[in-house]
Design brief:
The chain has 281 residues and is of the alpha/beta class. It has one domain (3-245): P-loop containing nucleotide triphosphate hydrolases (Rossmann fold), CATH 3.40.50. It has ten helices and five strands, in the order H-H-E-H-E-H-E-H-H-E-H-H-H-E-H.
């Protein structure tokens, strides 16, 4: 085993120990919102710099079901432009895509200049879901783990800033979150039959995660582990870390002033029976 593999294995164990640490004091909503607002301002600043400099940023989010990937991605993107920050969450592959080279369906979604692409699950499906649930043969998963570092090195050498996050949730917190979805009409859509099957295979996923870290954690594309039992802290910590991974400054910007509105020029409000919606609130 190489030094990268040893470091990755050690990192996985450290993350697991940290995830079992005593919970911190609950973060107050006001403190969370204030800090999130500040970080959102920095994300907008980063966005303008990415466009100005033509940077290519690719962010990968992986983790078990209920680990908080979606909520963290939403926290990152809710105040930036979807034309710059693109979220990619691919559905199950079609029959045609199944016949393609595995990485083929992901490559068209990689960032061009001036873009930040966020993968809500990525090519690492092969190392996790597909491997554990039997959607690919074991030798296919192992071949993927051998080849993906080569692809990621090519991505980085082409100028893509590649940042990989693993959301680490405890077994107890995952159970609480998935159980909460059953009776919550706002969240029931998040609970699929596949989630239930995956839930029962905790240690199979743990072994797959460990193999993935050992094979694909390296100097040019390391894995960053986010302890996610506390959703609010996980979101703030992830955004702060992301901002620290990219060297950005304030992009040049012309001073913005609202122009004067035109004069009415004889215009009068018409007597049109507009169909306004019922105002219940």
């Amino acid at each position: 085993m190489g030094t990268n593999g040893i470091r990755a294995k050690s990192g996985a164990k450290t993350a697991a120990r940290q995830n079992r640490a005593k919970p911190q004091e609950k973060l107050k909503g006001k403190d969370y919102n204030n800090e999130l607002a500040r970080l959102h301002g920095e994300l907008v600043k980063l966005q303008e710099w990415v466009v100005y400099k033509g940077l290519k940023v690719c962010i990968v989010f992986e983790g078990r079901d209920g680990a908080g990937k979606g909520g963290t991605i939403k926290a990152i993107t809710e105040r930036v432009s979807p034309r710059v920050f693109r979220v990619v969450a691919l559905p199950a592959p079609t029959e045609r895509e199944k016949s393609q080279m595995y990485m083929q369906r992901y490559v068209p979604h990689l960032p061009a200049a001036g873009e930040v692409v966020i993968f809500d699950r990525s090519w690492y499906n092969r190392a996790g879901v597909e491997r554990v649930m039997g959607f690919c043969r074991e030798e296919m998963a192992r071949k993927f783990l051998q080849l993906v570092p080569l692809l990621e090195k090519a991505m980085v050498e082409s100028g893509i800033i590649l940042i990989k996050y693993w959301m680490e949730v405890s077994a107890e917190e995952q159970t609480r979150r998935l159980a909460a979805r059953i009776h919550d009409t706002r969240k029931i859509w998040k609970l699929s039959p596949m989630d239930l099957k995956s839930y029962s295979r905790w240690y199979d996923y743990s072994r797959a995660r460990d193999d993935m870290f050992i094979a694909t954690d390296n100097g040019f594309a390391p894995w960053h582990v986010v302890r996610s039992d506390d959703k609010k802290r996980a979101r703030l910590n992830t955004i702060a870390h992301l901002l620290g991974r990219i060297d950005y400054k304030s992009a040049p910007r012309e001073e913005v002033k609202l122009p004067k509105r035109q004069k009415a020029g004889g215009y009068k409000e018409p007597e049109i029976p507009f169909k306004f919606i019922e105002e219940r609130y």
